[in-house]
Amino acid sequence: MSESIARRGFLVGALGVGAALTAACTSNAAPAASGTNVAAAAGDNAEPGTPVTIGFSAPAADHGWIAAIAANAAAQAEQYPDVTLEAVNPTNDITQQIAAVETLINQGVDALVILPNDGSQLTSLGRRAMDAGIPVINLDRIFDSPLAYRTWIGGDNYGMGVSAGTYIGTRLRDAGVANPVIGEIAGIDNLPLTQARSQGFADALSSFGFAVGPRQAADFTAQGGQRVAANLLQAAPRLDALWNHDDDQGIGVLAAITQAGRSEFFMVGGAGSANAMREIQGGTSVLEATVTYSPTMASSAMALARLVAQNRGMGDLVEKEVPTSITLASATITAENVADYLPLGFES
């Protein structure tokens, strides 16, 4: 077991929600529904506490990863007899999300789990909830101020880039490839998460003496991925490796690669979709690895909201309080370990 997996194995024990983190080293509880991953609380956290109502708000499920966020949150809440979930209608409209969460605040829920459409624009709303005595678990897209949330939990965008760059750099170095041509298909370039992923990728490659070659940004959709990949492949008659930031987007990227009849390079994906993992498992695709950014973080967010609302800490930690920040590590999934991660995958 690698050091990074061992470290996250410790976090699994601390949270008591083994399937809610991306790198559980043991088997997971059976999913409550297709594409969801849940686990019962462990140790003292398994004991029912004060009944609590947890409000939940997230963007509309127009992307496989976002759909899995909502599914995992709901499935995890169902594991607890002491939790009532109040989920508002998902929306991509900032104004509607604000109005929906305001309703939850006015109802006096015991805790809130919020994945904001835009962290900056919803910061004041998180602060309003906190000022009203309602602890906020800020999921993934972070608010501008720590006063707006009790705990933040999310993925490591920079770490995704580092994981992808380290895998590609190691492969090319070990193969003795000199001056490799390394492509990158990013997500939406003006988003901080995309910028962090690209920076981590460039930094990791530089440690091998390599640099990013042809790079284009898409839009996290299969259609955008196909269009951008077609353009990149046409402009780059030779590639040694390619990193695509997002596995939903990767459906289109792989389609463009097939259409172009290209197979001289290997590809790394991003996020850890079940589709990508099955492609890796099949062993007949240019897609040979993906790096995780798992929506099972929503399961953990729900577990944390319950503990915070009940004034309990994480069972395996010495401290009596839930930490204020939890960053999930980004694992690299290959043919060697894909069977371990497939149960955590989401459908694109």
UniProtKB/TrEMBL annotation:
Residues of the Periplasmic binding protein domain: 54-310
GO cellular component, one term: cell envelope
Native organism: Pseudonocardia hydrocarbonoxydans
Keyword Mitochondrion: no
Lineage of producing organism: Bacteria, Bacillati, Actinomycetota, Actinomycetes, Pseudonocardiales
Signal peptide: 1-29
Subcellular location: Cell envelope
Pfam families registered for this protein in UniProt: Peripla_BP_4
Keywords linked to the UniProt accession: Signal
One term of GO molecular function: carbohydrate binding
Assigned protein family: Belongs to the bacterial solute-binding protein 2 family.
Superkingdom of the organism of origin: Bacteria
InterPro entries named in the record: Peripla_BP_I, SBP_2_dom, TAT_signal
PANTHER family: D-ALLOSE-BINDING PERIPLASMIC PROTEIN-RELATED
Coiled coil: none
UniProt keyword Signal, yes or no: yes
Protein name: Sugar ABC transporter substrate-binding protein
